Amino acid sequence: MNLPSTAPPLPVRMVNEYAYCPRLFHLMFVDERWDDNLYTEQGRSVHARLDDAADPLPPPPPDAEEPPVIARSVSLGSEALGITAKLDLLEVAEGQAVPVDTKRGAPPDNPLRSYEPERVQLMCQGLLLREHGHTSDYGMLYFASSRRRVRVDFTDDLEARTLHLISETRACSQRTDPPPPLTDSPKCFGCSLSGICLPDETNLLAGTEQTPADIRRLYPARDDALPLYIQEQGARVGKSGEALSVSKGTLSLGEFPLKDVSQLVLCGNISVSAQCLHLLCERGIPVVHLSMGHWFYGITSGIGLRNAYDRAAQFAVAADDGRRLALAKAFVRAKTQNQRTFLRRNTTQDVETPLNEMRGLIARLDACADTDELMGFEGSIGAIYFANWGGLITAGPARDSFSPSSRNRRPPKDPVNAMLSFGYALLAKESTVALLAEGLDPYWGFLHRPRHGRPALALDLMEEFRPLVVDSAVLSAVNTCMVTAADFVTTAAGCAMKDCARKALIRAYELRLDQMITHPVFDYRCSWRSVIRVQAKLLAKTLRGEIPAYTGITTR
Length: 556
Hints:
The protein has 556 residues and is of the alpha/beta class.
């Protein structure tokens, strides 16, 4: 089993992961994806004492009567086997080297009191010990919660199975395409990467026999951590232990525990200390920069995920006119259908004619020969949509003040367009964060042409969510009187939001993102923020070829 010198050794825990699920191994070892859950946190806690110190491998005892030797965190490797391992505990006694592997739970109720991946991992450690001159005929699994040991004999069958899995794991590590997800497997419930893998969603969209009723939501419906918006001009954000401290001069504006913050959003002239930036980058919390005029300037983040395979697939699709146009059509089709549905659901006027016009234009999208023609139809549908926006506003004083005749920007000329521009900037940053989390390049799009400084792919992804999230939040802010005409300043140069209007819209926007809905495709409950992240994951899977076509989110 000699390996080429360029092949990196496989960590034994990765052989364990492959035995558990080949797709999990690929996500962790090849794509370098990781996420924590309760079980991984418990496992880390159980191993904390063992990892405190690293002992060398004791030599084989010359005499079986030698006193026992115990070593912790022993590192071993073998070029012949092509594997490396760190043994939690090694007991050398009576001529036997016995690896002891620590597990967080209790022994399973099966004849061998263990699962195959655990036995394979121990067998790998036994093979390494044999390579280093020890006799190793069995190992021990120590289950921390029950404080019980289970003996695993290193039989010929287990050795043959382990060597076969090492070979398969090596072959899988050389492939760039991930193995297919498990189908309706109970293993997915305890997997910390199930929210990245999306096994049921991927299988459904890939055309397996699953139905939406079979789909299990294996990720949190909504996040505990939320974006922290800082709007006080001249404020400074610093680090205070495990919290962010916000101050202005000598006045403290508050402290916010880091565990509750998913993004730090700076609106205008806000400074951040170097120590705070280092902490946020280390924890993977992005810093979003918005101008005082509400433009989305960019993101400061740590190294994060740099998925070369996803990006290679993204650029390959962008260079393929047919595939690029198919994705662009999916984005526009979902957006325009949602605009039509939003208008139909919320209008207070007779809009039968505009709805019919929109339906006719949407039906012609599939026949578009290029993105220029596609965006022409998108503009025509959007013009009908915004021309009838006034009918969405309830009767009363708000109708005269908040009834735009068209979509306008740079600068916006009326309060609704001012709020829409700010809301779309917030949605662009949300989409950019979601795409960066998948390792995609947010600046290289398919519908929107790449341009320096413009997150084209984020603009693509957010298209279907403009009516569903931002337009809905703006309409809610207007119709519930969260904003009034007095909250805006309108001059010949344009319309600007006062601080109170901006704060009210952020509140309406965040409430909308946090709202629980029934997923239109997968038929389970989750928040709109989760839906955006799932769509970014599904887009990446479409680019890699796991899913044949991208499915945009549309509501009925």
